[in-house]
C-alpha cells in the first residue's frame, strides 16, 4: 500500500431501479452530531485490528466488536453502519489521511509522511496488514474502499508536497509522480509483509534520501519562473 485511494473502487451511477452499492458510498464516520466518545473510538480500533490479526476480515462483525469491548451495539452502529466502516476507520486512525505536513521543505514533508507508515506498521496494524491485504485480493468492495478512503487521500497529500517543492525549484519537472510515490512508500509495505529486512527508526530518513537523489533538480537548472518573479518584485 503506498500511498492513499481509500474506499471507492469502481464508481458508477446506480440505475434507477437498483440500490446503490455500498462500496460506492464514502465510508468515513458520520459528521457532527452527538459528541464523540474517544474511549469507544480507541477501543474499537484496538478490537478491529485484533480480529484482523487473529481471525481475518470475515470474522469481523459489529455485534462481535461491541461484545469484545462491552459496549451496546447501538453505540457502534451510530458511528459505523457496516464492518467496512469499522475497518476503514481503524486503518485511517492508525495511518492518518493527510500525512505530509507543509513545512516549507520537501525532505521534512516526506519524512513526516513516511514516518506515519513506520509508526503504524510497528504496531497492531503492521501485524494485521498481511491478513487485510489477503482479504482485499478476494473482496473487491473492501479493496475499493481501502483504495479510496485510505490510499487516495494519503497519496494526494504527498502529491501536494511535491507540487509545493516544484514551485520552490527543489525537484525536476519531468517526474512520474505516481512511480515516485510508490518508491517512497513501497519499502514499508513490502518489508512489513515479507519481513525480509527490518524497518527501524532510520528507515524513513534512508528512504527519503534515496528518493530525493532521484527527484532532485540537476545542478545548474534554471530557477522556477514563480521564484524569479517574486525576487524581481522584491528587488523592484
Describe it for me?
- The protein has 236 residues and is mainly alpha-helical.
- The protein has a single domain (36-215), classed as Tetracycline Repressor, domain 2, CATH 1.10.357.
- The protein has 10 helices and no strands.
- It has helices spanning 38-54, 62-69, 73-77, 83-95, 106-121, 124-138, 140-168, 177-194, 203-215, 225-235.
- The protein starts with 37 loop residues before the first helix and ends with a helix.
Characteristic terms for this protein:
236 residues, mainly alpha, Tetracycline Repressor, domain 2, 10 helices, elongated
* Total domains: 1
What do the pLDDT scores average to? 84
CATH class: Mainly Alpha
- Name the CATH superfamily assignment: Tetracycline Repressor, domain 2
Poorly predicted parts? 2-25, 29-34
- For the terminal residues, how far apart are their CA atoms? 49 Å
Number of strand segments: 0
Helix content range of the residues, please? 55-70%
**Alpha-beta content class:** mainly alpha
Strand content: under 5%
CATH architecture: Orthogonal Bundle
Which sequence of SSEs, written as H and E, runs from N to C? Answer: HHHHHHHHHH
Q: What's the main sheet like?
A: none
Amino acid at each position: 500500500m503506498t500511498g492513499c485511494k481509500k474506499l471507492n473502487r469502481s464508481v458508477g451511477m446506480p440505475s434507477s431501479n437498483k440500490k446503490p452499492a455500498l462500496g460506492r458510498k464514502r465510508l468515513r464516520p458520520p459528521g457532527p452530531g452527538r459528541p464523540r466518545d474517544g474511549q469507544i473510538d480507541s477501543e474499537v480500533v484496538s478490537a478491529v485490528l485484533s480480529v484482523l490479526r487473529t481471525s481475518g476480515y470475515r470474522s469481523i462483525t459489529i455485534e462481535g466488536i461491541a461484545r469484545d469491548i462491552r459496549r451496546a451495539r447501538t453505540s457502534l452502529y451510530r458511528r459505523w453502519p457496516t464492518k467496512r466502516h469499522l475497518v476503514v476507520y481503524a486503518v485511517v486512525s492508525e495511518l492518518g489521511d493527510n500525512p505530509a505536513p507543509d513545512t516549507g521543505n520537501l525532505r521534512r514533508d516526506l519524512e513526516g509522511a513516511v514516518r506515519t507508515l513506520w509508526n503504524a506498521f510497528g504496531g497492531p496494524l503492521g501485524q494485521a496488514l498481511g491478513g487485510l491485504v489477503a482479504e482485499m485480493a478476494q473482496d473487491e468492495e473492501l479493496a475499493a474502499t481501502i483504495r479510496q478512503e485510505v490510499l487516495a487521500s494519503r497519496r494526494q497529500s504527498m502529491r501536494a508536497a511535491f507540487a509545493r517543492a516544484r514551485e520552490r525549484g527543489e525537484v525536476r519537472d519531468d517526474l512520474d509522480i505516481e512511480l515516485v510515490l510508490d518508491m517512497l512508500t513501497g519499502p514499508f509495505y513490502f518489508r512489513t509483509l515479507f519481513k525480509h529486512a527490518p524497518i527501524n527508526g532510520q528507515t524513513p530518513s534512508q528512504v527519503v534520501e534515496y528518493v530525493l537523489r532521484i527527484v532532485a533538480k540537476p545542478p545548474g537548472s534554471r530557477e522556477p519562473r514563480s521564484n524569479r518573479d517574486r525576487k524581481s518584485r522584491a528587488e523592484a
